[in-house]
Design brief:
InterPro entries: Acid_resist_chaperone_HdeD, DUF308_memb
Number of domains: 1
GO cellular component, one term: plasma membrane
Protein name: HdeD family acid-resistance protein
Order of helices and strands: EHHEHHHH
Mean pLDDT: 82
Organism: Chitinophaga oryziterrae
Number of strands: 2
Number of helices: 6
Keywords: Membrane, Transmembrane, Transmembrane helix
Length: 183
């Protein structure tokens, strides 16, 4: 996601903040949800992916004239939307399959976040390396989730925390770019 012009900086920077808070709240819910309530957890994931997909699609379309590579965010939104719809339509999905859906979804999202971090570096936005580090952390947790599905609660929560913190930090950076253009 490369900003084409500083004058047309991100209009909807707050969407990233909302997504970050949503991911962190889901991470907290994951840690507090016992394994016996895994069906509730799967619906929570389903709804989160669905809402994230809707918001990502909206963000990409709203900023398509201002962002290069907006199609990647749009694609990520479609994947999350479809994944959420699939998981909501099959609420009793087994604990064996769910970690892989979530792990690969988070892996894809982490790679997108990594690209966004490098885009911020291109524009010399301070702190971009922290965002890159968080994307790598989320990527690591997605690999661990796929490798050791039995630890889904902890690994999933940590991956959501990583993505959530990244999204909040990204919104702060995007808001600072937005504020610079308003002066």
């Amino acid at each position: 996601m490369i900003i084409k012009t500083v004058e047309n900086a991100i209009k909807h920077w707050w969407i990233s903040l909302v997504l970050g808070v949503l991911f962190i709240l889901v991470g907290i819910c994951v840690l507090l949800t016992p394994l016996a309530s895994y069906t509730i957890l799967s619906m929570l994931f389903s709804i989160t992916f669905f809402i994230n997909g809707v918001l990502e699609i909206f963000f990409a379309i709203a900023n398509k004239d201002h962002l290069d590579g907006w199609g990647w965010q749009f694609t990520g939104g479609i994947i999350d939307l479809l994944l959420g719809a699939l998981l909501m339509s099959i609420p009793g999905i087994s604990m064996v399959v769910l970690p892989f859906f979530i792990g690969f979804g988070l892996m894809f999202r982490s790679m997108i976040i990594m690209g966004l971090s490098f885009d911020l570096r291109t524009y010399q936005v301070p702190g971009w390396s922290w965002l890159l580090g968080l994307s790598l952390l989320a990527l690591l947790f997605s690999f661990l989730l796929i490798w050791k599905p039995l630890f889904i609660v902890v690994f999933t929560a940590m991956a959501f925390f990583g993505v959530g913190i990244f999204r909040i930090l990204l919104s702060v950076k995007l808001k600072s770019l937005h504020n610079i253009t308003r002066i």
